[in-house]
Methyltransferase (Virgisporangium ochraceum), 270 residues
Amino acid sequence: MTTATSSYTLDNGRPGAGGMLDCLSAVLDQSTVELIAPLVQLGAHCLELGAGNGSVARWLADAVGTGGRVVAVDLDPGLVRAEVRSRQQVQVLRRDLRTDPLPEGPFDLVHARLLLAHLGNRDALVPALAGLLAPGGALVVEEWGAAGPGVVLSSPWPETAELYRRYQTALVAMFGSAGNDPTWSVRVHAAMAAARLADVRTVVRARSWTGGTAGCRLPIEVSGQVREQLVGHGLDPADLDALREQLGDPRVVVMGNLTWSTIGHKTVGG
């Protein structure tokens, strides 16, 4: 996602995208809500970027109430659930953050999850998003850290760790070829500070994923969408098939991705 004509490797228009987004929601929503809950009050105005299936926008709609406002933005918002779209305080917008204007603020919260690392204009977007904040408002950017070789904590198959490592290596190469910046998660903090946001802090979280649950289903969903690309980046098809089968077994446990969540605030007088 580095130019206006390029497309995100895992865009919402692909068959199976809904399953992938559901897995991401199951894995990440609890920690996201714990992070943003103290930042949202009744009547607040919130901007959700990369809305996906709308699960975070749904929570925000409940939190801000009918007197608040939630703007949910996605390059392809077709998978935002009807239940979210029906809320009177929710506005769903189709926007390309590389080329289209940002929604009009001000917002008390701007939240982007697993999004900016894929955008070539990520460094310019941070100050632009900071400029949308109301005094005292917060910008929250969540990214997965550099996805190096995955750690398999338990498996009845001795080869699972190597298969998972090969998958992760091919995945990183695939994303890199599309313009993903694997260092972005650790650069967000400095970018927010440079945008003159205050009280910037970063929280890093991870947890284990058991075979058959959402975290281990996620590579199954992803690899089903981009099988040819993964093979093109060196992953053997037989290895991929074996890994997909093993990740469905509850005896397999892997360490989940590190989520880097960075929060910065606009000063009241800023």
